[in-house]
Amino acid sequence: MYRLLSLFSILFVILLFSFQKGSVEITKFVEVEVDGISLEDLRISLGAEKSAFHMDGFDAEKSKIGLELIKNGKAKRKLFKSCAISSYFVCTDCHNLTREFENPADQDPTDRFAYAQKNNLPFLPASTFWGIYNRRKFYNGDYIKKYGDIITKAKNSLPESIQVCAKYCSSGRYLKNWELEAIMHYFKENELRLRDLNLSDAQKKSIAKLSEMNAEEKKELLKAIDNSYAQGYSAHFLETMPRDDRKYGVGGDSEKGKYIYDKACLHCHLDGRVTFLKLDNDKLSAQMFLKNKTNYTDLSIYQIIRQGTYAMPGRNQYMPRFTKEKMSDQQIEDLMAYLNELAK
Question: What is the pLDDT of residues 225-280, one digit of tens each?
Fold first, then answer.
């Protein structure tokens, strides 16, 4: 009898342990499932309207073609190859494809730089394509000053903004329907998931119990989710820094400046990869900029970063401007600090 009770006790402990272990696995499974929820599907479940460019799903083959178009400016479709969208630019000359902020709601250039440096990312003038499918506003702020009515339809439409970028920003052509469709499938495949947002554990647990929430609770949760990522990036054009305000690198961080030079300037200018102006990590390149540092010309760092240039016949490769949100005045001084060192 004693032996039977002991055996029963052992079996009970084993079953209890197995049940507890299984519960942990089920909990983890639920957490994984919640983390992988499509942000758009979640917003719709909470009462948000579908976007005008809503897609129910994506085609992996089309998405692959979309990525090829983004990286190479042309792609092979079945037995046919497309001609180049632009003879001068591809999307990744100005746009990253990956996350640029620790906090997806952040837009501060200092935080963007820290994340870029930590993850060895290019420091580019345009917003990342990461999460672009989930945005609702495009060509925001001061871009109306540059493009005027061209961006009217694009401001609320991802497909229209892609076409504006292809035709005008890239000095190229409008995309064919199959090209635009392929890029949209790539953006859909890489839409934001719940795991990409910095939500609290309590908010994630409430999402796992959506069926038990009332309308007001869903409304509040939707508001919290919408505040947790950038639905559109601000863009403010700044005037060229006046001479009296320029520090010419004094007090700047040359280490940060070197990163900006390598990951922003040389991203396009190294050996003239994108543009006619060839730059390198050499004394001559630095001396050229220092010689023009007090000027208001294209060879002045203070001028070119804030004003950029425009495409023109014979020189379609233009320099995009860095907005207030993409590069701060202090980061320009950091760049000047490095150029001062490089010139020596």
Answer: 999 999 999 999 999 999 999 999 999 999 999 999 999 999 999 987 888 889 99
Which 8-state DSSP code applies to residue 314? T
CA nearest neighbour of 321 among 58, 154, 143: 143
pLDDT band at 208 (very low <50, low <70, confident <90, very high): confident
Measured CA to CA, the distance from residue 114 to residue 75 in angstroms comes to 34
Nearest in space to 254 (alpha carbons), one of 343, 148, 188, 326: 343
Number of H helices, E strands in the chain: 14, 2
Task: Report yes or no: 86 and 170 within 8 Å, Cβ to Cβ.
Answer: yes
Find out whether 67 and 98 touch, Cβ atoms under 8 Å.
no
Among 41, 47, 51, 49, residue whose Cα is nearest residue 218: 47
**What is the reported pLDDT for 314?**
78
Residues 86 and 166 sit within 8 Å (Cβ to Cβ): yes
- Rounded to whole angstroms, how far apart are CA atoms 251 and 141? 31
Which residue type, as a one-letter code, is found at position 186?
Answer: Y
Share of the chain above pLDDT 70, in %: 90
Please state the φ and ψ torsions of residue 137, each to the nearest 5 degrees: -130, 140
Say whether 270 sits in a helix, a strand or coil.
strand
Amino acid found at 314: G
Tokens 């790539």 belong to residue:
186
Dihedral sign for Cα 126, 130, 132, 137, please.
negative
- The pLDDT value recorded for residue 180 is 97
182 neighbors 62 (Cβ within 8 angstroms): yes
The answer to whether 106 touches 191, Cβ cutoff 8 Å, is no
Maximum Cα–Cα distance for the chain, whole Å? Answer: 99
The percent of residues in the chain predicted with pLDDT above 90, rounded, is 79
Identify the pLDDT of residue 26.
Answer: 31
| C-alpha to C-alpha distance for 228 and 64, rounded to whole angstroms | 29
Cα separation of the two ends of the chain:
92
